[in-house]
Amino acid sequence: MEPAPSREAHKEVRMDSEVQMHTVKARRRRRRPKQHHFKRYWWLYLAILGALCLIVILPIVYVAYPKIAQNELNHSTLRIFSQKATNPTPDSIRLEFVSILGSQSSQHPTIEAFGANLYMEESTTPFTQVPVPKLVHAKDGNKVNVSTTVQITEKEEFTKYTMATLGLDLVRVWIRGKTKLQEGGLPQVNINYGKQVITKGFNGLKGTQTTDINVLVTPEDDGTNFKANVFIPNPTVMTLDMGNVSIRIDTPVYPPLVPAPTNVTIGSAVLEHMVLVPGANQFPLRLATNQTQVLEILSTNSTNKATGILPVYINALKSEYNGVEIPYFTAALRMAAIPQQLAIGKALADAGIGAVLGIGASSLPTSALMPRATGLAA
Fold this sequence. Notes:
This protein is an alpha+beta fold. It has helices at residues 7-74, 155-167, 291-299, 302-307, 327-333, 344-350, 354-357, and strands at residues 77-86, 92-102, 110-111, 114-120, 128-132, 143-151, 170-182, 189-200, 209-215, 226-234, 238-241, 244-253, 262-271, 275-276, 279-287, 309-321, 324-325, 338-343. Strands 6-2-1-11-14 form a five-stranded mixed sheet, with no helix packed on it. Strands 3, 4, 5, 7 and 8 form a five-stranded antiparallel sheet that branches. Strands 12, 13, 16, 17 and 18 form a five-stranded antiparallel sheet that branches. A hairpin with an 8-residue loop joins strand 12 (244-253) and strand 13 (262-271).
């Protein structure tokens, strides 16, 4: 048998247990002040945590987010799909646009409606303002439709726009405005919209042709003795209504008919309801001409007499809509005369007039037949 533990052994065990209990109690006493501290000041720690979150989040929401939104908008594109300018008056015009939004962004924000100012390139004065509707969940391929009658307060700037539209191959217009953008549940931010849009212009109505010429020996009741069709191409996406356009037909005349080279008017006409739609446009032309004068001009120029080609210039005089002149269209149409070569020889021969004077209709290239207008007096 093993001997029973001595009294000294029992005493040592008790002492070890007491030491362990004192150690545990000491640890508990050290923990209590921390627990009491957290219980008493929990609100302070929560406030500190909230402040730290705000320090991180607020710059993102109110600094980074607006910059990102503005950057995304700056990298978007806007393409004019179709355009109409109708019902013109001296102080207003009906404008319709269908634009296509281009964007590579994965975000689809909502852009609030705003007034877009339209500027010519390098101008600081807008030529008009159009209302842009609210765009919800903007994304690539969205159509933006604008249809409004705008007031023309800056007539000089608007005239610059019509002159560029009719006279240039490419027209550059800036669209600027201030609006608000919102992405999902984030707050709205103010952004500046600024985008240059480049569209095709009418390029001086190049490609205009006068065809189907018919000379009448006996004038009609209104004096018309010359008929033709005027073909005007429209290479743009714009439908442009210019109302009734008055024109004057001039031809260059040289000595000995006149003392010095000059342009002589051989007739005038009105192209009624001149609405240029994209593609081909054709308008009837009716003139009351001095046939004796035309024959004399043809017969005194050996080249023109042999070919039956009469070189002329079509000069626009004015645009009228509902009997009222539209000055911004008049100025644009007057920018340049349109050169034409009228194959009038065959029409004169068909009327029994040209053959008498020996006026023919050869097939010489027309580029060699058109005299230069330089130095001719209008």
